[in-house]
Design brief:
globular; single chain; 6-stranded antiparallel β-sheet; 14 helices; Immunoglobulin-like; about 600 residues; alpha+beta
């Protein structure tokens, strides 16, 4: 019998997606290797009979489950449906809201009242083509020594928690040609507003650029010049908490219960104490960062005005919301509406370290920081978990965890100011770092480069990961920098790598080789990654090719070639049923792309 307890579907995202009547995507989860076949039986919910039938295709598997999908088409857009399942043991059954039954009359159909009831997606289209570059402003580049803090340290100082290096917005402006040559098209700046620390996550004044970084005019020049070079600029919105110098918290410290701002914070007891804090804070009792109550309408209005102000007066292109999973959902909905009213193409992305589907339904965030993707990639490419079957499962769970538009608009980061640098996590193995960079640039989602990773910087957890950017070419890994530039050009060359679907093609238990197909109407691209120290000979399915396609190898890192003829130009024509033979070097990555006459 089909295992009923493993079956899961709900007529809501991400298990149902789409807002077009002729292209409703339905997802079903089942026990791994339990089903021989699965079908969706569907029809107009106001008709007695269901005449539609769609065969489900397996799109991936994790350690316990298979994931199957089918697209439904109905002129009215009013769907009712259930699933007919065939088990590998020969059993048959119907799966509906009543669960699994052996009699069709016992079913209770799933209902999608109308596709128009699904949230429309209004995220900015440009994001899917972007390459994001994260800048920790104090550590990136010093463009104006006149605004250096009194305690500034030499640029190559190994930082501690009090270090100031003097990086500023003028430094970012000066680096725009470099960033353009790299291929970055979106700049994400950590907080720039007035604050007491070097990191500026303890904001004192949300309406003032910190004097150590510049002023309003400097920010305007940055956004204007970035736009002229085809780059967007997003700022870090620290709306979950403030600094102790923020006017409302200062008033609370001074007046206690009598403060008109006491309901802006969660106070445990009076009088106010900071050590230990008698109020809720960011993280674990970080006294310098009192948590704000965004469920308070007055607080919400203040910070909605802040978010709108900077978009309107400086032309920034959106916000990265710090600690977004701790921020009030009503605030996120209202921020999205008000910012979009000013700039319909503004990008709203949230810092969330876990699966984030409730934030990605189309009414709050456009995307998130894809930490589940990052965790899987680091484990596989570092060698900690050299198991492509497990890796494919983690990716499948990630790519089916939210609506696809949000997944494609989320930031695929390998390192950040909150984590050890990627080269550190790769054990200072440059080959591994090159390989995971190739995977990052070929994956669904927006690649985010943490400043300096592209020139081979290393460093452990904060503060070691926040050292000054290496600008002396003698201190840079020029080969790594060239690779990043090349990988971004490859990503831009093929629409499938920016906007295509995801399908695991090669994944086996204990195998360090992984291949994924990026599917797109302009042409599919097959991405292959050999993380082992041994050469590999393999045969890959040719089902992704059209009947008149030839196969061409695009090298990413290491070497690979097609044994049939030795050169891509002389590779024989392949039918869709014929396998593609490939030989790969150790720690190598390549693309197989169709080459048409």
């Amino acid at each position: 019998m089909v295992e009923a307890s493993s079956l899961y579907h709900t007529p809501w995202t991400p298990y149902i997606q789409g807002t077009q009547a002729d292209n409703l995507r339905v997802l079903l989860r089942a026990k791994r290797d339990d089903l021989k076949a699965a079908y969706v039986i569907y029809g107009d919910r106001y008709r007695d009979h269901m005449t539609g039938r769609a065969t489900m295709q397996k799109i991936g598997a994790d350690e316990q489950h298979d994931y199957l999908a089918a697209c439904l088409a109905l002129p009215t857009g009013r769907f009712k449906y259930y699933f007919f399942l065939e088990g590998k043991d020969g059993s048959e059954g119907w799966y509906s809201e009543n669960g699994l039954t052996q009699q069709s009359w016992q079913t209770r159909v799933f209902q999608m009242p109308h596709v128009a009831a699904l949230p429309q997606w209004d995220g900015p289209d440009w994001v899917q083509d972007a390459v994001c570059y994260q800048i920790f402003v104090d550590r990136f580049r010093n463009g104006n020594t006149a605004n250096d803090p009194a305690s500034v340290s030499p640029w190559n100082t190994q930082p501690d928690f009090q270090t100031r290096l003097g990086g500023d917005l003028q430094g970012v402006i000066d680096a725009l040609p470099y960033l353009q040559s790299l291929g970055a098209t979106m700049l994400y700046l950590t907080p720039i507003f007035k604050a007491g620390s070097s990191h500026k996550y303890d904001t004192a004044d949300y309406y003032a650029v910190d004097p150590e970084f510049g002023d309003l005019d400097t920010l305007r020049r940055l956004t204007n010049q970035a736009h002229q070079l085809g780059m967007r600029v997003i700022l870090d919105g620290v709306f979950n908490h403030c600094g102790t110098d923020f006017f409302a918290f200062r008033d609370l410290l001074k007046k206690g219960r009598d403060s008109q701002y006491r309901d802006w914070f969660n106070v445990y007891r009076y009088p106010i104490e900071m050590h230990p804090p008698s109020y809720e804070t960011f993280a674990a009792s970080v006294a310098e960062m009192p948590k704000l109550r965004l469920d308070n309408p007055e607080v919400r209005r203040y910070f909605l005005n802040v978010a709108s102000y900077w978009v309107e007066v400086t032309g920034i292109d959106g916000w990265r919301i710090d600690v977004a999973n701790e921020v009030d959902h009503r605030f996120m909905r209202e921020l999205r509406r008000e910012v979009r009213a000013i700039n319909p193409e503004a990008y709203i992305v949230g810092e969330i370290w876990h699966s984030a589907e409730p934030w990605l339904r189309g009414d709050k965030l456009d995307g998130v920081t894809a930490y589940p993707w990052r965790d899987a990639a680091l484990a596989f490419f570092s060698g900690w978990r050299s198991d492509s079957d497990w890796f494919a499962g983690q990716l499948t769970k990630h790519y089916t965890s939210a609506r696809i538009e949000a997944i494609h608009s989320s930031l695929n980061l390998l390192g950040s100011h909150d984590t050890p640098r990627v080269l550190e996590l790769m054990g200072h193995d440059v080959n591994k770092a090159r390989l995971i960079a190739a995977f990052q640039m070929m994956s669904p989602g927006v690649p985010q480069i943490y400043y300096g990773d592209e020139v081979g910087m290393y460093g452990g957890s904060d503060p070691a990961c926040r050292a000054g950017m290496r600008w002396d070419e003698q201190d840079q890994n020029q080969e790594m920098l060239g690779l990043y530039r090349y990988l971004i050009k490859i990503r831009n060359r093929y629409p499938a790598l920016r906007r295509g679907g995801f399908l695991p093609i090669w994944s086996k238990p204990g195998d360090p080789l992984f291949a994924m197909l990026r599917q797109h109407r302009s042409g599919n691209v097959l991405c292959v990654f050999n993380t082992a120290w041994q050469e590999r000979d393999l045969q890959l399915s040719g089902r992704w090719l059209r009947s008149n396609d030839r196969v061409e190898v695009v090298h990413l890192t290491g070497w690979a070639h097609l044994p049939d003829g030795g050169r891509p130009e002389s590779t024989k024509l392949s039918s869709r049923m014929a396998p593609v033979r490939l030989r790969m070097g150790p720690q190598a990555a390549c693309l197989l792309v169709p080459k048409r006459d």
